[in-house]
Structures are given as C-alpha cells and as structure tokens.
Amino acid sequence: MKKSLSVLVGVLMVLGLISFSLAQGTQAPAKKPVGTTFIGTVDSVTMAEIVVVNKANVRMSFLIVATTTLYNAKGETIGLDKIVKGNEVNVEYKTTAEGAYEAVSVKVTK
Questions:
Q1: Is the Cβ–Cβ distance between 101 and 61 less than 8 Å?
Q2: Nearest Cα to 91, choosing from 31, 46, 39?
Q3: Is 13 inside any structural domain?
Q4: 22: Cβ–Cβ under 8 A, 6 or more apart, which residues?
Q5: Domain presence at residue 55
Q6: CA pair distance 110, 91, nearest whole angstrom
Q7: pLDDT digit string (tens) for 1-41?
Q8: I need a labelling partner for 13 at 20 to 30 A (CA). Which of 27, 39, 41, 76 fits?
Q9: Helix (H) or strand (E) holding 106
C-alpha cells in the first residue's frame, strides 16, 4: 500500500511539473508599450510642462521629466530654453499610471 501510494504521488508530481512547464511555454510575449505622438504648436513651456495645441484646436499638456529628450529640426539635442511659444513640435509621449501625459521626446519641426 505504501509503495503504490508513493508511486502515485510521484506520478502526480511529474504530471504537475510537465503541465506547469507547458503552461509557461504558451504565454504570449510581453508587449512593449507603444508611444503616442501629438503634433501641434507650442502654447506654453515651463520647466515642468509643455502645452501644445493641434490644428483641430485640441490642447494637451505634457510633463517634462529628466528623461525627456529634446531635439531641434536637425535632430540635434537641445535645451528646454530653445523651445518657445509658436514652435511647431512633434511630442512623443506615454501615459503614466496616474493618467498624466509624460513627454518622452519633443522635436521642434519649425
């Protein structure tokens, strides 16, 4: 009785490990978050935020953080002081867990 019980437990353990390893292999790969782009004209700029308005008159505010990269029309990195009201920009951004829009990059196009 003890021998058959231990064989049964061993078989169940092996089956459990096999099913666990198969389940691990069927998981879909994690998707990389896709950035979103907003194109428009700079309405205002501060050290913490840039406000951009597009042609449909939609206004969006984007947080400027330490990892935000800023580019001129030539693709060269620039300082925030080079972005002024009236510049046309492409803002690539992501939405934070709190629902705020965080600028990943800002490129001045004109």
A1: yes
A2: 39
A3: no
A4: none
A5: yes
A6: 13
A7: 655 555 555 555 555 555 555 455 555 544 445 569 999 99
A8: 27
A9: strand 101-108
CA 35 to each of CA 10, 12, 27, 82, 84: distance values in angstroms, whole numbers, following the listed order: 49, 46, 24, 24, 24
Q: Which residue has the higher pLDDT, 17 or 53?
A: 53
| pLDDT at res. 24 | 55
- For the chain, the domain total comes to 1
The reply to whether 8 falls in a domain is no
The CATH number of the domain where 102 resides is what? 2.40.50.320
- Nearest Cα neighbor of 60 from 99, 33, 97 is 99
User: What domain range includes position 50?
Assistant: 36-108
Beta-bridge partners for 91 = 38, 106
Assigned domain for 64 exists: yes
pLDDT band at 110, cuts 50/70/90?
A: confident
